[in-house]
Amino acid sequence: MTAVLRITHKFRNVCHHAYFGISIRTCSQKEVLRQGELHTPVMVNEVLECLQPQPGQVFIDMTFGAGGHSQRILESAPDIKLFVLDRDPVSYSIAKRLAVKFPGQVEPLLGRFSELPVLLKSHGIRHNSIDGILFDFGCSSMQFDVAERGFSVSKDGPLDMRMDGDRFPEEPTAADVLAKVDEEDLVKILKVYGEEKQAKKIARAVMEARYVFKKLETTSELGDLVASVCIDEERLDKLQRHTHSATKTFQALRIFVNNEVNELNFGMIIAETYLKVGGKLVTLTFHSLEDRIVKRHLLGNVIDNAINPLPLKYTDSSLWYDRNEVDSVLHSNWKLVHKHVLTPSTEEVAVNPRSRSAKLRAATKVTNSFV
User: Residue span of the signal peptide, if any (predicted)?
Assistant: First the structure.
């Protein structure tokens, strides 16, 4: 993990202040409404059961998306105050319409997790004051469905993948990453962020493609390139359906371009900071990298505000620590609501196949951090 964080810093230094001229089409108001109406929130009943909204409570939806979870929270009890955050300008537009529907109850916020403390301060929100926080990590259905965003291997469009849209035009797109990253770093990105077994072959093919295409600029170009490398490999998803061989490559690039690992880690720190004692945290993750970060935060397996690269099961029998030393290292301010992770029902997966990879974890904050 540490090595990849160094890669991120190294590459962002290379690309800083460079304007690449690739923009994302702004969706029309009609399209924004249509996408929001068609979106199906994942495990919404389980989310509400864990949050247990009560009249007058204050919540933060850290990943608003199309607002499916937010609307159900608002409908579950009267006079709820809800801060809704999203880094995507399209989602922010939907959030403003939800604020009209629930006047005085919804505060739309545009920004990343790392921007949230400043945004909350502008609204007078203090630490240890929020009743519940929800994370629905990953990419939203709207982003996958709009070809111009470049998130989906099945829809041809520019290789963009920036969740922020054009808010930060100097930030590199996925096409810029592929045009500038060196082979060794690309292998690490694909292995760590995509858990791609063919990372070396794919990275080599990208390097060779530079001499042919000058630059991989569309999703179909990248998808076809990866498919040509993995031609003898058949891949299936969790529903045993055929999946494109470039899916993990797209995931890895999306996570890297949007700095999702660092943002997720910081988001968990923010949740612990702003929740009151007794407040509820609910997370929905969609791949093992996200779930691993959440789980280790909840278990207290965190060192210097970052997750321990090793799980707790790895121990050295030659070392001995007294109880106070162990408690100081493995202290957690969380109490897990469920012993095991929750997954969507068979019925929900049949209706909404994109929920198939979802894992829900919930916890209650039991103490304030004094660090």
Answer: none
